[in-house]
Amino acid sequence: MFGIGGGELFFIILVVLMLFGSDKIPDIARALGKGMAQLKNATNEIKSEIQKGTQDAGLDMNTLTGGVSDEIAKAKEGITKMVNPIENINLDVQNPIEKVKEDIESITGPVKRQL
Question: What pLDDT, on a 0 to 100 scale, did the predictor assign at position 66?
Fold first, then answer.
């Protein structure tokens, strides 16, 4: 949880107890809970307003977000190609080597004897 270990969490609780006392902690927790609920409701209202606005404008959120997802996938693929250029190079090395071998074997006369 937020990168906090058990010992750190225990220390934070101990400091809070020392600062506010055991009688104020339930009030603080209640206020924090109400604040989190209000924040969640506000974000849900904003999300619903955005969805309502896009529906009124005749836009579909799924197609909009799908396009963004496609662009993100293309960008990731491009970055991967830039990071690993050797994997993306499609060189056909075997065919030129075979071609050279065939050319050497097809040479006749004094040149072949020198090799």
Answer: 64
At position 57, the amino acid (one-letter code) is A
**What does the CA dihedral 45, 47, 53, 55 come to, rounded to 10 degrees?**
-120
Alpha helices in 1-115 (DSSP H): 6-20, 25-56, 61-83, 85-88, 94-106, 110-114
The pTM assigned to this predicted structure is: 0.42
Tokens of 48: 């619903």
How far apart, in Å, are the Cα atoms of 70 and each of 62, 73, 81?
A: 12, 5, 17
Which tokens in the block code for residue 76? 């990731």
Residue extents of the structural domains in the chain: 26-59, 61-106
